[in-house]
Amino acid sequence: MRLSAITPAILGLVASVNSYSVTYSTETGYFLQDESSTDPSTFDYTAVNFGLINRTYPADRHLKHTHEYTQWERFYHQVQRLNKDSPSSVEYKVLFLGRHGEGYHNAAESYYGTPAWNCYWAELDGNSTTTWKDATLTPAGITQALKAHTFWQKQITDQRIHTPDAYFVSPLTRTLQTANYTFTDLSLPAHATKFNPLIKELFREGISIHTCDHRRSKTYVHNLFPEWRIEKGFSEEDELWNGVTGETSAAQDVRSTTALNEVFFTDEAKKADAFISITSHSGEISSILRVLGHRSFSLSTGAVIPVLVKAEKKGRDSVPVSSTSAAWEVSPHCTEPPVTSVSACVCPSSAVPVTTPLITAI
């Protein structure tokens, strides 16, 4: 089946007669990552309380003995107050955007260099020593996810942070593993929502011709974590990846908007569920931030940033409608290892760049 024939149906981009649009914005002034002075390359979420700024809030006046509350408790109260005082068409949620830990594809890209990776090696399933198709976590990646686990537990114990009311995770293996290492077996307060994530197709990485973006079957995903929920309509095989065309940034932003619409207004969403965890990927988190109007903020592998989001729906209640679909594009690549690739990929003279999938035998 041709990708162009299935993409609009899968992404749910066909508008209904009774539909509404959603406008997203970021509420700044709460987190260091919102500020232009914060350098993403040196940002360590574990050293700065997830980036939460030490400040007072308008909602503090509704609390007695404010000094007895932690910064995170007062911030949660502020978010709850924003929702209470807003019309039904407006919702505020805090999205904890977590990037997966280092995968074998990340290690391979570092080894070969980005130009050579993009134009040849990423189109293979792996090399003689490792596999990176739908890559799993490296030992370093597992350590990064466990670092997040330890920090969440510290925040729960010391800051009495309100843990996520809902969990979403990309269906690619590295994100499934990261979410598992991060959230399983946390010691949660009695009132907290238990970790039982919803596996959501549209939160996967930007879909390129790279085999690391090719997800495995629904059966595999279910067998990996059988107690986790998989969203309705999740196909047995990957219907989005074809090894020939890839998403543009515009196309990915359409997909991210659709996913956010579902999280905020249609996907088991409740206004009271103010804290949301999304375990995803660097490219997809960048896309989400663009949709939210947030400044660009690159996350290192395993890192997490929260963002306070305002969502306002306009129009009649029924089905949220995203922007119209955007075209995908082909990516020429080498059929043999490149000759040079320090700053650009140069294919051997006998290997003219092609736009068809490589034979991926290991």
TrEMBL record:
Checking Pfam families in the record gives: His_Phos_1
Q: Membrane-crossing residues? A: none
**Gene Ontology CC annotations of this record:** cytoplasm
The alphabetized UniProt keywords are: Signal
Q: Which domain of life is it from?
A: Eukaryota
Know the name of this protein? GPI anchored protein
Question: Sorted alphabetically, which CDD domains does this protein's record hold?
Answer: HP_PGM_like (cd07067)
An MF annotation (GO) of this entry: phosphatase activity
Classification via SMART domains? PGAM
UniProt xrefs under Gene3D superfamilies: Phosphoglycerate mutase-like
Lineage runs: Eukaryota, Fungi, Dikarya, Ascomycota, Pezizomycotina
Give start-end of the signal peptide: 1-19
